[in-house]
Design goal:
The structure is a single chain. The protein has one domain. The protein has 8 helices and 2 strands. Helix 1 runs parallel beside helix 4. The chain is elongated, with a radius of gyration of 19 Å.
Length: about 210
Amino acid sequence: MNSDRNHQETRLTLIYAVLLGVMTVGYRLVAPYKLFGSGSDFAWNLMPVGALAIFVGSRLPSLWGWIIPFSAMLVSDVLLIPICAERGDPSMAWTTTPFIYLSFALYMLLGKVIKPTATSPIPLLGSAIAGSVQFFVLTNFAVWAFEVTGGVPLYPKTPSGLIDCFVMALPFSKGTFIGDLFFTALFFACHAVLFAVVRSRSSSPQEAV
């Protein structure tokens, strides 16, 4: 009986995570333009991908936990190619994209810290903040190490150059921190509500008897 219930709950979580993945693709394509305007760098960092990776890392400890966020990221990156071309920025670049995807793998590993039985919001907040920090460090390190403009490195390959890169990125990072905190709380809260409703409905016939 318990195994059947666990199987049903895992299947429901998988469906929920896939829907989150579809929503993530749609959000990345629409939100920067419809909600904030295409000129808002804040909007381009206010994304749910990190939260999605944390959620599936915690709730789907299987291959699906890796497929869903990376598929959402890849599909949206491809669809963003013509949109980003209009802004003069590529949606994917060999200098930074591998580090971005690596960062989302680390988001997933942080999600595994959150146990399915956890009821405290502290692990959620901790994972979201840690995810934002590692994303900031990893992706901006890639910018410092590999970005060039007109054949000239964007930043000097010195410790002070790295610090300058981090300082220049700070205004853009607020979107990442806010997005990770907000969407992580939202995804886990909606999942908890969904399961509470399903469990109450499944137990109500037994209570009537």
